[in-house]
## 1
Amino acid sequence: MQALRFHGAQDIRLDDVAEPQTQAGQVKIKVHWCGICGSDLHEYLAGPIMTPTPDAPHPLTGESMPLTMGHEFAGEIVEVGDGVEGLAIADLVAVEPLLFCGECELCRAGDYNLCPKFGAIGVVGGGGAFAEFITVPVHLVHPLPEGVTTEQAAVAEPVCVGWHAVGRSGLRDGGSALVIGAGPIGLATLIALKARGAGFVAVADRSTGARRDAALALGADLFVDASSESIGDAIRAATGGLGPDVVFEVAGAQAAFDDAVDAVRPKGRIVSLAVWEKDVRIDLNRLLLKEVEIVLSLAYANEYRVVLDAIADGRISNLDAMVTGRIPLGEVVEGGFETLIEHRDDHVKILVHP
Ligand SMILES: [Zn+2]
Ligand SMILES: [Zn+2]
């Protein structure tokens, strides 16, 4: 079968690889849809960042590059391994693409996103979903609730990242929020905020176009064009002068963090869920004068089911608004990765159909 493999910076290839064999305790899935993630683009442009190299294989998978990419996916079970119960051929499923040891204190407490051996399928090994088939252990498999499509379930992965961040924010019902960065994770945070009872939610980005359209379609109460106006001034004017209760910093850039510090309300909270390429400078005195808390949020844990249920019962709707392209696997490099990099203003999320 064909699989998109990471060989190095600017070097991803559709290679012919063997179909994975279904082991005991696993199911084999025919991938219906797999989203291209911002972290995939980072890896492509500047990697290996998260991809293990031959001199340092991943501690859990023992694998190193070249590795198959793709972690935001859903599909259909085509084979069931020995000892698997409760799953059957033709079941539609989403896969929680997280790898963790399952034995350490953090894993046993349910905080498996913080496991020292943490990694993601499609990044550190374990196969990847930019391929026709993948085999995965059953504990990562979530059957889709009635009415949820595999396309929605592929987008559920980034929504889980936003869902976890909203949990970390401690936002009260009806509270106000600002999301800085309107890429897929920023929009996923907006979706989670609206589904979890936030009141006024603003989204800010320097890029308008498709990202502004998607933010407004997904229920943002205000879009701030950060290329032409001050985020802090715009959000204070819209929130009665003091600023939002919580600011989500999703961009991973110094300017965005400075905007978060400026915009957040006194006694408010900044949640950072970006991956940083460089160190960030934090003006603690400005935060001190407002008694602001900073919390960080990494991936998600125990939230996949919750998000799929929220899609099924309609608390999350209109996920389509995030999807700006659907392409076959054969077009993944040009029509997927290159398009997202070169036409950032026209795209949010591109789904690949292997
Ligand atoms: Zn992702
Ligand atoms: Zn662990």
## 2
Amino acid sequence: MLSSVLSKSQCAACKFCCSFRRQSLWETPLFPPEVVEKLSKPNEYGVVGVFRAVDNLRCNNTVDEPQKNCAGRLVLENNYRTDDPEEEVPCTFLDPQKGCILKGEDKPFDCSIWPLRIMNKDGKLVIALTPTCSAIGAVPSQALVELVQNGLGEKIFEYAKTHPYIVKEYKEGFPIIL
Ligand code: SF4
């Protein structure tokens, strides 16, 4: 979705947003219920993910299957090998050579809009830039602002209406674009 301002080769060479320090676990990928269902058992990718329901109240669940039909956050907490706060663990679906192994239909929307984020700032939804993407930079370029203002922002707001779990609390230092 950001291919006009961020090339695939830049992302392939970096993969920063697919690895997580403990302090970044709030950013691990969020998957819709049908993809959680698919990826939490043996699947075409040969990799099974572990997920935690992100919003139990909205799940269409049952007592017997409390996590069924829930959107899920990928659980990586148990993959750290040291106590070093700088240690990074890769996303379960990251291949060190090929990058993300997921096809477009299974890739989280959140990943496809990185480093953009939809956030709740004082009760209002905003589109903000995560300032740590080295390719995009900490300040939104004119090209990125135009991309967001000319349709992408609206697409993100629309997606969040049906997938409200992607909305994050606003963080200081994230420039607001829309
Ligand atoms: S799902 Fe794919 S794009 Fe998203 S963090 Fe994992 S490897 Fe990266």
## 3
Amino acid sequence: MSNTTPKLPIYLDHAATTPCDPRVVQAMLPYFTEMFGNPGSRNHSFGWAAEDAVTKARQRVADLIGADSKEIIFTSGSTESNNLAIKGAANMYAKKPAGQSNRGHIISVIHEHKAVLDPCKRLEKEGFDVTLIDPKADGTVTREMIEAVIRDDTILVTVMWANNEIGTFNEIPQIGELCHDKGIIFHTDATQWVGKMPTNVKTDNVDLLSLSGHKMYGPKGVGALYVRRRRPRVRIIALQEGGGQERGFRAGTANVTGIVGLGKACELCAQDMDSERERLLKLRTKLETMVTDALDVTQINGHPTKRLAHLTNISFGFVEGESLMMALKEIAMSSGSACTSASLEPSYVLKALGVGDDLAHSSLRISMGRWTTEEQIDYAGEKIIEAVNKLRDLSPLYDMHNEGIDITKIEWAAH
Ligand SMILES: Cc1ncc(COP(=O)(O)O)c(C=O)c1O
């Protein structure tokens, strides 16, 4: 254990967003100024330079996920990629035209990101049937679970690769194989997975895959959708019309600087992926061991091993979540997913795993990244232990628990 206090505040919320790698910024800079051309300008060198840059970036994104560059569509991020994939495929493969009911069946999972759930909800209003299955208590989704709900009219399955709140990952290659056997289109929201884990859309049987720049040390506001071109050739209907860019799948002048940044970020992730994962796993193990050794009534949520190395989600019994966050202001973490922490609802992801409201409220998502150091983890671990102990000192319920009283059995009088 080191005695030095690291520079504060400490950022441990990389699942919400990552800093841009300086090498990414460096690669982007010339495209704001000297090489500012529109890649659609086919008749001068400014346009050609921009187009070359976009082509190079497209190849880099494709290389990271084992795709062909023609299969990559640039978007504004995973929210857009998910919308394009889910609505685009549902409308393309619909069994009946718009305005009618029973247009086709879609399968997803209740602990998906809202950027998947909301497009599914929209499609339900537009005449599709949607089945949302529950994950297992460890957060995983298996091939058998999907197989059990497939129907003759199922046209699309969408299952995230790794969950943003608990880091647990799913049997994507097996689910993809099932979908291919049944002739069903398979989409995965791989926002939290790509760049951290080896990915090959071909052998992993994925038809449509969403990824986002700002989760992998690239810029915000840029992402991509992979659309399979062979076995099967997947077709989608564009959501946005206009100048016909991105082969008609996504109209609008390309975000050249963002795309260059995304390409560079993909290249960098590929370079150090395995060593980075090993380093972060050691840090996470250290943090989890520290905290669980020092504190009782503490639970690590999600699957014990099928979990992204850089992320942990821990619930602390007998602690009020907001007070815990307030006590730990110098450490940036999440008390649920970044996108739901604005509301005080307990995390729907943790609820889906069967975690009770109290524990869900008092959970921390801690996600480390490329520049997280051992000193930061030591410091964060110590501060978390100190804060939980202080809050428990004030908790009559914790005292009762220590006296052996089962507080779930107490009948509280209402006045
Ligand atoms: C699993 C998952 N899907 C989708 C998104 C949305 O991505 P973006 O911010 O690129 O729109 C996020 C971001 O939090 C995410 O974690």
## 4
Amino acid sequence: MIEQPIIFDTSDGQQLRINMINSWFKNHYEELGLDAPAKIVKLSLDGGFTCPNRDGSKGTGGCLFCSESGSGDMASRAADDIEHALSKQIRLLSEKWPADKYDVKYLAYFQSHTNTYAPVEELRVKFEAALAAPDVVGLAIATRPDCLPDDVLDLLSELNKKTFLWVELGLQTIHDETARAMNLCHTLADYDNTVRRLTAHGIRVVTHLILGLPGESREMMLESVRYACRPIGDASESFIFGLKLHMLNVVRGSGMAQSMPDYIPFDSMEEYIDLLIAALEIVPPEITLHRISGDAPRSTLIAPEWSYKKRTILNNIHREMRQRNTWQGRRV
Ligand code: SF4
């Protein structure tokens, strides 16, 4: 039998062998309530929340890799005025995606800290304010796997019925010993429970995994990918909606910068790309990829020192996949 490569996107002269979320948007614009494809841009917001792993209710000090901004270094602060923060982001991005050239629509991305960690009334006000902004067609909400009380789940379920929504869960690893060492203060059981509850309400789940955590072998990292991509529950055809994979970034201001300042997650970009491709090969083609490289700003990055070269990393990944004649899902 001849194995045919899956090419997920051929527009713009691309031959993408990965089901990147931007390609998915082009073919599923109706799910965003649009009549025609548009350029979908995520607007990163800091909603002014904190994190139960910082204020003592789950832990203190935060996850060891977390930056002072709560892993939202590119986010605009929106605690008091969501509309103002969204306009600021739109201004910042308008040079890249000028409105006179592109039909641009936005997803409001609550990125920093734990965006389900507040009274449900406060969450409702902030999420609805974001949805009311011009050209915002959906929400992406990042949170911990152990921070989804029933009233917040009910709110998300309500929003999910009227807009496009995904919830990002920062699992990072399935290995509880790594989770303990990195002070994540949540467990795989927390993640499983939250995935089950979200998917029972039809809410899309995007799982975030970090490659290169201290103490993890290549096989351990691939086990995390395999686990996150397994069918959910008894519905053997149902998967998480999306996956975020990237290398560990050691950044200034994080616990790691203090406790392991010399730790280097990968010896070279090539080593990371080789692992990433092995990971992509076991991700079912249905699952969308939301990130495959890091995005820590160069100003805060300690290691790996090449991690800020996002465009180079992405180009090399795509080129290497073509050269190996491989694709996402090849080994599923
Ligand atoms: S749960 Fe998220 S915001 Fe909280 S400390 Fe960990 S990475 Fe940072």
